[in-house]
Amino acid sequence: MSKPRIIAFYLPQFYPTPENDRWWGKGFTEWTNVGKAKPLYRGHYQPKVPADLGYYDLRLPIIREQQAEMAKQAGIEGFCYWHYWTNGKRMLSEVFEEVVHSRKPDFPFCLCWANHSWYKKTWSDKGKDVLLIEQTYPGKEDYEQHFEALLPAFKDPRYMKINGKLIFGIFSPYSIPNPQELISIWNQLAQKNGLEGFYFFAYSSQKSKNDHYLNIGYNSVVSNLDWEYMFKKGIMLRAFNKIKRNYLKIPNLIPYKSYVEICEQTFDQNPLIMPCLLPNFDHSPRSGTKGLILKDSTPQLWEKLCKNIFEIRSFIPHEDNLIFIKAWNEWGEGNYLEPDLQYGTQYLEALKRAISCIK
After folding, report:
1. What is the Cα–Cα distance from 343 to 351, expressed in whole angstroms?
2. 306: which residues sit within 8 A by CB, 6+ positions away?
3. How do beta strands 76-86 and 329-330 pair?
4. Of all helices (H) and strands (E), which one includes residue 10?
5. What is the DSSP letter of 50?
6. Bridge pairing between strands 198-204 and 165-170
7. Residues 6 or more apart from 197 whose CB is under 8 A from it?
8. Around Cβ 61, how many Cβ atoms within 10 Å?
9. pLDDT classification of 319: cutoffs 50, 70, 90
10. Mean pLDDT of all residues in the chain?
């Protein structure tokens, strides 16, 4: 039996940027939505309040050091930073660039390209979303510039690998018109720069597409919950959810216990389909009653999920036994492992216990 290699997705959007100042108002960060969230039903924990680290600014090195130490103590091997590259330009890169250039914290990392267009969403049935930045794929020259921009990170000894190859994720794999071109160009550039190449994973929230991603050249798939599957409960339930949203102002609620059961029931035994586990989820700070909530998540249920999935995956050699957690700090989606005022460090402690059960 092998222990899993735990990687937690890491959101860098906790400091002001010129783009967010222009689109959302001076000083906007991810904390803006988190702090103004309100409870939408009896017992709804909102706003979610960070405990140990407070409403931090990720430009502060001491915060990043404390995050890394917490993660290390819980058994997390590294962070997968969300990375933004659009039409030859990096965005929200200040924090990660500082991590690379300062060599601190001394904690492993990899990257996942959040390759989607940015919208100002109305979360309304009648309103129209406003396009802020369109993600395009100009081709070879853009892929080469993208690689060169990240080369210092790729050469960093902290960059995470599988069998010598750099781990790199694509958030929206179906959006790239010719993924084989990107994969080929980057692998050639890696070898020219003394690197062995890349281990590309496709991030997937549609189980039906997982095999397709493997067939078109991705090395593996990081499989998140298929939300559509969760809602395949019949027309009456969907109609009831719509009534709750529109008239009772209650968002879509799924018991976390049901999420745990579905994860275990639909788990894919293919070693190349790597699980992405959610400790919690509450999108209402961003989307209000249009959001989705995994209701009544607890550290105990989280520990149960982790133990079961870790045990199922324990036949895979340690080097290849990657399991992702979404996320370390996506507070705007109520999706985090960092301590809050409700449970403190209990989710981190539960994860550590679940890992220790694999001998």
Report:
1. 14
2. 277, 350, 351, 354, 355
3. unpaired
4. strand 5-10
5. B
6. parallel
7. 165, 166, 187, 190, 191
8. 14
9. very high
10. 92
Give the C-alpha separation, 10 to 4, whole Å.
18
Q: pLDDT tens digits, residue range 131-171? A: 889 999 999 999 999 999 999 999 999 999 999 999 999 99
Which run of H or of E encompasses 294? strand 292-295
Identity at 210, one-letter amino acid code: N
d(CA 26, CA 43): 33
**Ramachandran sector of residue 334 (left: φ over 0; alpha: ψ -120 to 50; beta: rest):** left
- Distance CA(316)–CA(247), nearest Å, equals 49
Residue 102: alpha-carbon gap to chain centroid: 24
The residue type found at 66 is: Q
Dist. CA 77–CA 324, nearest whole Å: 10
Distance from C-alpha of 259 to C-alpha of 67, rounded to nearest angstrom: 27
Cα separation, 9 vs 29, in Å, equals: 18
What is the pTM (predicted TM-score) of this model? Answer: 0.94
